[in-house]
Amino acid sequence: MANLALQLYTLRDLLEKDFAGTLRKVADIGYQAVELHTYGGLTPVQLRNLLDDLGLQAVSAHVALTRIESELGNVLEEAKTIGFQYIVVPWLPPERRQTKEDYEKLIATLARAGDEVAQAGLQLVYHNHDFEFTKFDGEFMLDTLFAKTDAERVQAELDLYWIHRAGEDPVAYINKYAGRLDLLHMKDASAADGSFAEVGQGVLDWDKIIAAAKDAGVKWYIVEQDVCKTDALACIQTSFAFLQHRV
């Protein structure tokens, strides 16, 4: 499925033990694309060769904000070598999200980096958790962030689990950021305790989500499960089986 990818953070423990072997198992399940969070100790050239050998495409990569601030040129070169189009800001450390001013600094950083990334022919993206649903001046900071950045320079990678966890409607957010949403994190929530679940095994309404995502122009549906209660490879296989004929 060329439009179905896996965020490799889901398999971080297995990747630490056997990076190449774990990627091969991802390909064996049927995934044809991945979103990186590490290069597994490989050089960009080595990683590109490994992915090519396995028939995997790197669509995007989660890149620490500090790297984007301090060595964006290196990140852009890595992206071109490995072949990923989207550079995703995945996380805002707690000390950098305490005040409205913290978010204003983030917005300024994203605006500057978004210009440079676009000039390189690539796309900067911001990935949410639930903490961006803090309100300042009556508005969620996630919405302020996107309102104050150029839609062509800073895209959204909406994480459906975290939107749900924040008490908001994932479908409404997909509709809200239609056209700015090439990447969508597919992640479910357990009915029992709200914890992470395999896609299709929890409480999110996937028929409505997928219909909205198609209307919104989503290009890549990216499976992620932050914590797997059972075998992680079995979890990603369950999610793949649920999504492969739906997206």
UniProtKB/TrEMBL annotation:
Coiled coil, from the record: none
Superkingdom of origin organism: Bacteria
Keyword match Transferase: no
Gene3D superfamilies: Divalent-metal-dependent TIM barrel enzymes
Record keywords: Isomerase
Pfam families: AP_endonuc_2
This protein's record includes keyword Isomerase: yes
Chain ranges of the Xylose isomerase-like TIM barrel domain: 23-225
Protein name per Swiss-Prot or TrEMBL: Sugar phosphate isomerase/epimerase
Organism from which the protein derives: Alicyclobacillus acidoterrestris (strain ATCC 49025 / DSM 3922 / CIP 106132 / NCIMB 13137 / GD3B)
